[in-house]
């Protein structure tokens, strides 16, 4: 009976999305090439439907419960927010560009965009204006997976999100923050932001992304971000996932790297009901460096699933993965790290590490390295550990007068700490440190 | 100050301490010696309050208070300090921040405010100088990548900062070369006063040339089988532990 219910409900959301597409069509330029893409993608989604636990890639993460909600898919009305009410979600200590959305709609009031040397603006504008046509034609939907149902769903509704373009040899002089707020004014709400980041040859940029719900209404975000690092480009991307308990996120990030480029993605998952991070790196030249790091600290019934892919398609490249997880209560963590090394990708160095601490008996972690190596001269290492806090270490701290709770916090902090070393924005590092201390319930009264 | 009476303690249902009696008064230095596996480290660990050790019988009294119901941190707040044989590495937490946290935790337990930053800094400098610790060392992650000697020196630095009434030094001499041993011993001696006491646990007599004990106890098979003055330590150094084992076989 339950099974039947599930399929009926997800069918309902699926039907709703399919019919919503026709509503959207009244509102967009049907002659634009991107619209053909939307129509095609909708067909793909219609065929595939939402992923279920029967699929290997979704074995440990079920969307069924989330799909039962009756989400609005378009905002019913425009909502504004006062900066003072949402300021804390920004990294306001530093000067930055901001691209801010409220219930999927661009907020000029909260944003700080630019076209001065670089483009930090809206994808909707880029899709419509001839000025951006060359870039859109070259990059849009080029690295996103065509046969992935949720990605296809996002593409079919792709209208709004951030558009970031850094021309050749330009260094964006301040970080860019992308924030998606959901207010609850629309009731239970489904969001499908779509962003595009292009760093041309030798360009550099730092980006911080956050999804934040502001009410107890359910939010389901199905986000797609495409990132292109051309030759010698450097991109630092930070994802802060510290949402409310009623908010869920499927994040699909696709990264295409050309030779000598360096892309780092840090994912900090401290909240939300269900978070699924599909993080895909495609190396398309030699001497590429790809880094994926994550700290997950969750409790209660929270669920975080990291599903990473590194596609080593060319020789002499590196990839580094380091994910730390701390699970309390009945929290569930999943780490699935796939490393694919093509036959021609000799001299690949691929490292993967996933270390986990279970703070409670009922917390769960499912961790699975997946190595597919077809070249013979490669260095690949992977390791995963699951453990509790070291009792002797705890005794050591307590014997110095540090109470048990703080001692546990300190040890947990120490466990996760090395992931923060590579955070290149000091104010962000401090902020994450504070979030971690807060999350672990320790107030040490000073910066660690 | 410390009164241990007929202490029986076990770990994982194995009895390690089989009736220990020990009286330590303010101003005294006691040495506890004995062969490996005699229960020396267990005694220190039980006094400091490790939860994995079960006290089956007897009592530990400190400054007139029974310690049985007190957690490790509460014992620390009362002034008991254990210098570990194998200090634990804490990446990402500097020596300075660790000691600040420890000191302020004790102060909080005593109803005091955090130690003012300038006072803390002054004290850290003073105690670091006492143990010839470089300031760079203080901003390193606690014990991470420290040599054996650095770890032990850092333990005594923490002792100097926390100013305990009773310091138990568990094999502080192991892994120390003679120069480091002298620095550590010198630090301990300078911290000694008529109001505090030191219990030195060691396998060898060498450390006792520098930290001179008032009393020497021999621990064997979970019991103190012999007590005496520093001459006993010399005798043990000369004759080894076999004669003790034979006497108590």
Topology readout:
The complex is a heterodimer of chains A (448) and B (249).
Chain A: H1 2-25, H2 33-48, H3 64-67, H4 83-86, E1 97-102, E2 105-106, E3 119-122, H5 123-128, H6 133-139, H7 149-156, E4 162-166, E5 176-182, E6 189-191, E7 194-199, E8 204-213, E9 219-229, E10 234-241, E11 247-257, E12 262-269, E13 274-283, E14 289-298, E15 303-312, E16 318-327, E17 332-341, E18 349-358, E19 364-373, E20 379-387, H8 391-398, H9 404-416, H10 426-439
Parallel strand pairs in A: 1-5, 4-7, 5-8, 6-9, 7-9, 8-10, 9-11, 10-12, 11-13, 12-14, 13-15, 14-16, 15-17, 16-18, 17-19, 18-20
Antiparallel strand pairs in A: 1-2, 3-4
Chain B: E1 2-11, E2 14-24, E3 29-33, H1 40-48, E4 53-62, E5 65-66, H2 72-78, E6 80-83, E7 90-94, H3 95-109, H4 117-130, H5 135-138, E8 141-142, H6 148-162, E9 166-170, H7 178-191, E10 197-202, H8 206-210, E11 215-220, E12 223-228, H9 230-239, H10 242-247
Parallel strand pairs in B: 3-10, 3-11, 6-9, 9-10
Antiparallel strand pairs in B: 1-2, 1-4, 4-5, 7-8, 11-12
Helix pairs in contact in B: 2-3, 3-6, 6-7
Summarize the structure.
Chain A has helices at residues 2-25, 33-48, 64-67, 83-86, 123-128, 133-139, 149-156, 391-398, 404-416, 426-439, and strands at residues 97-102, 105-106, 119-122, 162-166, 176-182, 189-191, 194-199, 204-213, 219-229, 234-241, 247-257, 262-269, 274-283, 289-298, 303-312, 318-327, 332-341, 349-358, 364-373, 379-387.
Would you give an account of this structure?
The complex is a heterodimer of chains A (448) and B (249). Chain A has 2 domains: 2-284, no CATH class; 303-317 and 329-388, no CATH class. The relative contact order of chain A is 0.09. The longest helix of chain A is centred in the first third of the chain and has 24 residues, at 2-25. Chain A is built from 10 helices and 20 strands. Chain A has helices at 2-25, 33-48, 64-67, 83-86, 123-128, 133-139, 149-156, 391-398, 404-416, 426-439, and strands spanning 97-102, 105-106, 119-122, 162-166, 176-182, 189-191, 194-199, 204-213, 219-229, 234-241, 247-257, 262-269, 274-283, 289-298, 303-312, 318-327, 332-341, 349-358, 364-373, 379-387. Chain B has 249 residues and is α/β, with parallel strands linked by helices. Chain B has a single domain (2-247), classed as Rossmann fold (3-Layer(aba) Sandwich). Chain B is built from 10 helices and 12 strands. Chain B has helices at residues 40-48, 72-78, 95-109, 117-130, 135-138, 148-162, 178-191, 206-210, 230-239, 242-247; strands at residues 2-11, 14-24, 29-33, 53-62, 65-66, 80-83, 90-94, 141-142, 166-170, 197-202, 215-220, 223-228. In chain B, the strands form 3 sheets. Chain B has a 6-stranded mixed β-sheet with strand order 6-9-10-3-11-12, with helices on both faces. Chain B has a 4-stranded antiparallel β-sheet with strand order 2-1-4-5. In chain B, helix 2 crosses helix 3 and helix 6 (148-162) runs parallel beside helix 7 (178-191). The interface between A and B is medium-sized, with 27 and 34 residues.
């Amino acid at each position: 009976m339950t099974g039947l219910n599930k399929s009926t409900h997800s069918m309902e959301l699926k039907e709703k999305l399919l019919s919503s597409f026709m509503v959207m069509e009244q509102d967009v330029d049907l002659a634009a090439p991107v619209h053909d893409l939307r129509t095609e993608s909708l067909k793909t989604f219609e065929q595939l439907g939402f992923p279920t636990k029967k699929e290997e890639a979704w074995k440990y993460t079920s969307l069924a419960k989330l799909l039962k909600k009756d989400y609005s898919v378009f905002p019913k009305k425009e909502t504004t927010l006062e900066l003072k009410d949402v300021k804390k979600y920004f990294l306001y200590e530093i000067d930055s560009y901001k691209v801010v959305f409220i219930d999927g709609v661009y907020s000029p009031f909260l944003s700080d965009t630019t076209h001065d040397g670089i483009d930090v603006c809206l994808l909707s504008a880029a899709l419509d204006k001839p000025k951006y046509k060359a870039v859109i034609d070259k990059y849009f939907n080029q690295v996103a997976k065509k046969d992935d149902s949720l990605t296809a769903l996002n593409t079919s509704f792709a209208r709004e999100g951030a558009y970031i373009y850094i021309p050749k040899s330009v260094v964006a002089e301040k970080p860019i923050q992308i924030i998606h707020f959901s207010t609850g004014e629309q009731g239970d709400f489904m969001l499908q932001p779509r962003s595009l980041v292009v760093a041309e040859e030798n360009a550099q940029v730092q980006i911080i992304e956050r999804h934040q719900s502001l009410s107890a209404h359910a939010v389901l975000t199905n986000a797609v971000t495409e990132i292109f690092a051309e030759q010698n480009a450097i991109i630092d991307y930070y994802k802060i996932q510290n949402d409310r308990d009623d908010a869920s996120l499927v994040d699909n990030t696709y990264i295409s790297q050309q030779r000598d480029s360096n892309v780092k993605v840090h994912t900090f998952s401290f909240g939300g009901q269900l978070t699924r991070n599909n993080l895909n790196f495609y190396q398309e030249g030699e001497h590429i460096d790809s880094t994926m790091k994550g700290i997950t600290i969750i409790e209660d019934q929270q669920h975080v699933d990291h599903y990473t892919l590194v596609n080593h398609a060319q020789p002499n490249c590196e990839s580094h993965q380091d994910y730390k997880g701390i699970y309390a209560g009945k929290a569930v963590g999943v780490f699935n790290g796939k490393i694919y090394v093509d036959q021609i990708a000799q001299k690949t160095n691929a490292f993967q590490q996933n270390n986990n601490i279970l703070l409670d008996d009922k917390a769960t972690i499912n961790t699975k390295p997946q190595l597919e190596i077809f070249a013979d001269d490669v260095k690949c290492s992977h390791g995963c550990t699951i453990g509790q806090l070291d009792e002797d270490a705890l005794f050591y701290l307590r014997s110095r007068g540090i109470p048990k709770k703080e001692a546990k916090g300190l040890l947990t902090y120490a466990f996760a700490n090395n992931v923060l070393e590579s955070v290149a924005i000091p104010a962000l590092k401090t902020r994450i440190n504070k979030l971690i201390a807060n999350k672990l319930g320790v107030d040490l009264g000073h910066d660690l | 100050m410390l009164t241990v009476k007929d202490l029986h303690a076990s770990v994982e249902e194995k009895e390690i301490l089989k009736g220990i009696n020990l009286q330590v008064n303010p101003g005294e230095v006691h040495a506890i010696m004995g062969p490996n596996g005699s229960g020396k480290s267990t005694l220190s660990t039980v006094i400091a309050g490790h939860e994995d050790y079960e006290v089956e019988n007897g009592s530990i009294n400190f400054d007139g208070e029974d310690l049985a119901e007190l957690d490790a941190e509460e014992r620390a707040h009362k002034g008991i300090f254990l210098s570990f044989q194998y200090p634990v590495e804490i990446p990402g937490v500097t020596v300075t921040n660790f000691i600040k946290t420890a000191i302020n935790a004790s102060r909080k337990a005593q109803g005091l405010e955090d130690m003012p930053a300038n006072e803390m800094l002054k004290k850290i400098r003073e105690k670091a100088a006492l143990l010839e610790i470089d300031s760079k060392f203080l901003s390193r992650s606690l014990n991470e990548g420290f040599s054996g000697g650095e770890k032990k020196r850092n333990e005594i630095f923490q002792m100097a900062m926390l100013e305990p009434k009773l310091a138990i030094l568990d094999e502080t001499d192991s892994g120390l070369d003679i120069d480091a041993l002298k620095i550590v011993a010198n630090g301990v001696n300078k911290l000694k006063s008529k109001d505090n006491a030191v219990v030195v646990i060691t396998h060898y007599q060498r450390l006792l040339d520098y930290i001179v004990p008032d009393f020497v106890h021999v621990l064997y098979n979970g019991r103190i089988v012999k007590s005496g003055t520093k001459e006993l330590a010399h005798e043990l150094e000369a004759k080894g532990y076999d004669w003790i084992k034979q006497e108590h076989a």
